Predict the 3D structure of the following.
Amino acid sequence: MSGYVRNLAVAARQAQSVIAACSGAQRRALLEDMAAQLLEGHVSILSANALDMQAAREGGASNATLDRLLLDAVRVQGMATALREVAAQPDPFGQITRSDTRPNGVQVQRQRIPLGLIAMIFEARPNVTAEAAALCLKAGNAVLLRGGSEAAHSNAAIATCLHAALRNAGLPTAAVSLITDTAREHVLELLQLTDLVDLAIPRGGESLIRFVAEHARVPVIKHYQGVCHLYVDRAANSDNALALLLDGKTSRPGVCNALETLLVHRDIADAFLPAALAALKQRGVQVRGDAVTQAFDASVVAASDADYAAEFLDLIIAVRVVDSLDAAIAHIQQYTSDHTEVIVTDDAAAADAFVRAIRSSAVMVNASSRFNDGGQLGLGAEIGISTTRLHAYGPMGVESLTIERFVVHGSGQVRHPNLLSSPIQ
Amino acid sequence: MSGYVRNLAVAARQAQSVIAACSGAQRRALLEDMAAQLLEGHVSILSANALDMQAAREGGASNATLDRLLLDAVRVQGMATALREVAAQPDPFGQITRSDTRPNGVQVQRQRIPLGLIAMIFEARPNVTAEAAALCLKAGNAVLLRGGSEAAHSNAAIATCLHAALRNAGLPTAAVSLITDTAREHVLELLQLTDLVDLAIPRGGESLIRFVAEHARVPVIKHYQGVCHLYVDRAANSDNALALLLDGKTSRPGVCNALETLLVHRDIADAFLPAALAALKQRGVQVRGDAVTQAFDASVVAASDADYAAEFLDLIIAVRVVDSLDAAIAHIQQYTSDHTEVIVTDDAAAADAFVRAIRSSAVMVNASSRFNDGGQLGLGAEIGISTTRLHAYGPMGVESLTIERFVVHGSGQVRHPNLLSSPIQ
């Protein structure tokens, strides 16, 4: 361990005390200036990105990778807009969430404070540099950013703009620290800094997330997969079911909240499946199904167990006809990734039973899986989605970058009032 | 890895689904029956404890250890009472904590659900077996208990009583699984079960906690130390300050919320320190202080840096006279263990500044450090205290054994309404 990352983390931790001493108005103004700096610096950002894009193309990167890496004027504007939106959010720092007076007259409150120092470890998507920084700072944290080597120039150019805003406000640039040497050993070092880093958030492919989870001593919140299910109940409104199916599978197949498996109650299969299979086929979706499903459409490929466990991230879907609500629940419990599960039904009791039995980060009744998203659920921007049942579960916004602690006000109360009056212990 | 613990964890995880399907009333009745079973089984519990106590005495255990290990009729009654209190608490499982309707008409709620499977790793204190089980079950979790070998017979006898209650209710005894083979390799195995264990909570000496933190892949919430500070401000009420000092240092010196360092503003030192030092001496407290403190009382030993960092857990206190509120804050920020910090002052602005600058799990204004305790702060029983800024910070009650997730109700809303109407993708 060279100490390179430790030194950065120590400086970032010290910078966090300064950020934490800023008022909500100051943090808001900082983020608004960061947005302005990104727009002012867009030429340098786009030039830097062009270098990354050229290297990626020469390295044979896929179209999907190139698309994730690309910045254009619209995306830079998008970054600035996201920062302004985070700036405008309510300030969670110092918020009193609960207040209670105890029998002895002591007032007990819970108060939100920043986690402290966040480590963001991500791939591609240079916009994460700006958005993660904004979310962390809004809540009074400092952030250590370790982006992918493929976006090195882009991330550095963005960080330069963010630093300009910090300097304008007389704040330490270490509050947004970019780990520019992306060697894996530095990620390893970062993940051991239990005395400095309060939370590490990995975002990217499964390989990166597994690496972080395997090696981290610091707390990690993550999600691996979104194997999201849509269950069409016997009491479902078929039009709703079809709309949710197509929105969930085909609107953006490569995202974590896209549907991967369709479950259909046998009592509604005759009425629902033919139209559903036809609509999926029309949209270029390959259907892999059980024998019952195959009986509706000979082009349906036989589904294997691996298909029901799969996160296709593509125009492929696994289908199964189930005997009952309980069978649907049992299937989901077997294959769930704890991300998002959907039931379509007009039977309130069935909906309640489904919600009760499902433990995923988000459960939808008659609404698309595509709503499991910070912006859609009202959090504003999200720093990531958690499928870890600790601290945050589902999309993580600014508030998830804080923790509640206790603030107690008394007038001299003690636990052992007799102690003072008895002079000998 | 023998798989011994994995097998237990798999069974416990399955049992958790059954517990999670119980109503609040059923879980309440279960805990009340557990209390009854403990009382009915008190003879076997005390006999088992006698075996542990004899072995401990023969092994040369200290008085403090023997006191932590001992069960008598009063303590068994205390266990039963604690279980009844937990039983009577509000049920957090399924609680809707937030509700909001989005612009598109979708209703977004946050709902509490159990974490799942908790691993409790502890030493001595057989009552933890019963209390941890109660807290976990109340919130709908299952629990894996790994107690210390010194309390093996006691823990087994307590678990037997808890199992009787589970059987009476037709519930799987695996919901409260005792790891009876206390070999360290099994703890290691337990701490790797990332697919089964949602949270591990260690309670005991620093060596145990460090071992768990070092080796865990599963999430861990813990506290190492309670280096708690009392700062007597220039605007302090001296009577309150003395009361808080004595309550904090002498009422139970061996606990984590006991005071370890006293800081005194120089402007109040003349008025406060003589009486404070005399009262401490009267109660057998050894004072280690800076030169200014020593000038008040020649019997004061010179304090070293190590003394200001120390958690004495004894009738010893470190004292320092500081120049200002800011100096007190700086001292605390240097030596804090993030546990509990106290300010005594009648100056509201000073109190606010102190609260703002201190990031510990609990900060007290004119109230004793001894209130950083689940029962005292209104949580009911606590499963432990966290000084980890994640998920829970401060005492952890039943609610800390749950996580909020999203429940979304719609009427067929999708993110991309145009998708359905355009037949070709």
Summary: The mean pLDDT of chain A is 95. Residues 231 and 263 of chain A are 5 Å apart (CA to CA). The two ends of chain A are 51 Å apart (CA to CA).
